[in-house]
Specification:
With about 300 residues, the protein is α/β, with parallel strands linked by helices. It is about 30% helix and about 20% strand. The chain contains 8 helices and 9 strands.
Length: about 300
């Protein structure tokens, strides 16, 4: 039986082997990115506009990196329940490789989701490159996805206040009542909005303000929570083998889910503990399993 709401200050490999088979309802994780191009931009490491994961790049080759992720994905498959969904952040460099590895592990790749960062780091003009305002998120499942909680598409985009709503469509139906073809089309549009038709795009800025920690690639809660709510239910267990700043854990707590995760860096584990303390202070009535770090 797994201990709930715990982050182990250990590497997920091989520590994850201690988890029980078919014991997690969802996977949500942001593994290290193999920044092979960084070898050619060493002079940019301290540039104020460059944020990369140099500290995480301990891989000697692309093959070593992909083998590492394949081993982790096989363990994810073992511990996932039938019908569990998973989400894995990745860079555009390796998305095609990861799609294949995910399927080799036994999962079914469902869709590549695009996170549009509305406040990306600016491009460096001397390098003659476009700013990188997109990050990818691979959605996969163990068999057919067991949970799919529809969410209004407007909630996935930061322009929700100006987006069309079901109420807007209803007013148009009243206006065009009796004009059959237009009225039928509007009814279909209203049904689509009410049912929460979702596309593979989410728009949100990178972490800013009080939520921001010193973790360089921290994922904002507004990007994590929608997918957690779509693919899991309250009381479910979410696995994150690469906790980083602990966003998956905080998102789980805020949505009444449980979690289990791993973070090899002691400094980041301390950061997660502080976020746990802040959550418990702000939520004195929290009656779930108290979140802890196991050192």
């Amino acid at each position: 039986m797994n201990i709930m709401n715990v982050v182990y200050n250990r590497s997920c490999h091989p520590k994850m082997q201690e988890l029980t088979d078919a014991s997690v309802d969802m996977i949500f994780t942001d593994p290290p990115y193999f920044q092979y191009r960084a070898q050619n931009v060493k002079k940019l490491r301290n540039h104020k506009d460059v944020v990369t994961e140099f500290a995480f790049d301990g891989f000697r080759s692309q093959e070593e990196y992909l083998t590492f992720l394949e081993d982790i994905l096989k363990e994810m498959y073992r511990v996932a329940k039938s019908g569990a969904s998973g989400y894995l952040f990745c860079a555009d460099d390796f998305v095609s490789y990861l799609n294949q590895i995910i399927e080799f592990a036994g999962f079914k790749v469902r869709k590549v989701i695009h996170w549009h960062k509305t406040n990306p780091f600016p491009a460096i003009s001397s390098r003659k490159m476009f700013a990188n305002s997109m990050e990818l998120l691979i959605h996969f499942s163990k068999g057919s996805a067991a949970t799919w909680n529809y969410k209004p598409v407007n909630e996935m985009h930061n322009y929700r206040n100006t987006a069309i709503t079901a109420a807007d469509i209803e007013s148009l139906i009243i206006k065009y009542h009796g004009e059959n073809k237009i009225e039928q089309l509007l009814e279909l549009m209203k049904d689509a909005l009410r049912d929460g038709t979702l596309d593979n795009l989410i728009e949100n800025p990178i972490c800013i303000g009080k939520e921001r920690t010193r973790h360089k690639t921290q994922k904002p809660l507004k990007v994590c929570i929608p997918f957690i709510e779509i693919s899991s239910n309250p009381g479910d267990v979410i696995l994150d083998p690469f906790m980083g700043a602990g966003s998956t854990a905080i998102a789980a707590l805020q949505t009444r889910r449980n979690f289990v995760g791993y973070e090899i860096d002691a400094g980041y584990s301390e950061l997660i503990q502080k976020r746990f303390d802040d959550f418990l202070t702000k939520n004195p009535g929290f009656n779930g399993e108290k979140p802890v770090i196991v050192w």
